Every structure is written in structure tokens, then in C-alpha cells.
Amino acid sequence: MASDPSPQAQVPGPVGIFPATGMPDADWWHTLWPDPDAVVRALGVGPGMRVLDLACGDGHFTAALARCAGSGYVTGLDLDPALLARAKARCADPSCHFRLGDAMAIRDVCPGPFDVVFMANTFHGVPDKARLANAVAAVLAPGGRFVIINWQARAREETVVLGAPRGPQTALRLSPEATLEAISAAGFARERLVTLPPYHYGLIVHRPAAPDAKEAPAALR
Length: 221
Hints:
By secondary structure, this protein is α/β, with parallel strands linked by helices. Helix content is 25%, strand content 24%.
């Protein structure tokens, strides 16, 4: 699910949606992310992977994940039934599935295991980031990755799209270091950082696999 705290960009949703998150207006959102497939590939998602799009919103990235995962499969999870309906319409690929549920209780709805849990433009609004990280860790396969797309830690007035400031309030934005610190208690270690112009980064972290566990998918090594 994307984010923009301005009143005109907020779409009312059910209780439980993370604060300061919601789908923004489509015009500037698609201007900001004109090629989601390229973003997904840059973050290491490739053929055969099992991917969870956490807080998938209207499916802008879910459809791209399904195209890149190819012979794998993608599950989109969100708490908003109206957004899930839009996501289903956007991604009709038979390998793409959608579930209604709370991101804090992933295992109850999407037990996995997943090679990648992908979360775009929502992490900044999570009140209990350590709890979410533990929930993600519980559904990852050995050596699996948690991929977080965040707004850069810049003043909101500096992140302009189509002539207006966009994204979460300045105080909610996190540096890669702050994001990693927020999830480190769940056992995640930094793997790499990908710059996503003009205003985002993708942080890829993993939980070290046990010595006898299967290797991680090749596209992410």
C-alpha cells in the first residue's frame, strides 16, 4: 500500500490500516512508478520465486511481481477489500492470489513459505515495526528475503511529483540504517541497498539460513 498524508490523497479504509498509509491518487503514483517491472527486477525478484506482496494495495507492484516471478507464484495481502478487488482486476495471472487479512498476522492467512516478502511504501506507517518483522520472519523460507521500499529520509517538500509534495510526513521517513535497526531484533541482516530514483530506496535483508537449509533462490544471491 502506498502513502500520501494529504487529505485529497487518502482513501478511507477499515480500522487496522497502518497510520499515514493509503493509496494515493493514481495520476502522480503512476508518474512516480512508471515501470514497476524494472523496480521488481532491480530488487532481485526472478522466475520461480514464491513472493508475498505485503500490504499490496491496488496491485500496482503485485502484477509486476507476478510477471517477474514467472513460473513461481505471488500472493497479495491487504486489509482493504476495495483495494483487493482493484488488485485482482489488475492481476489476472493464475499464479497471482489475493488474501484479505492483517499484516501483523501473516501466518494465519498466508503461511508460506515465501522466498521474498515484498513491502512497498508502507513500512514507515507501521506502529510496531519489530512485531511486523517477526511476523515476516515466520513466513520466510530459509535464507528468504524481506524487501522494503521506503521513501528517502528527505523533507516532504523536496519530494515533488506533478508539481506537489508527495509521500509521508517528513517525521515518518526512515533512513536505510533506521529501517534496518527497526527490524534487526527479528534476526535480519542487511544484504544490499538499491537506489530507486527519484525518491526511494529498496532495502534487501535476509535471515541467515541454517547450515542444512536449502540455498536461497539464485536470482537473489
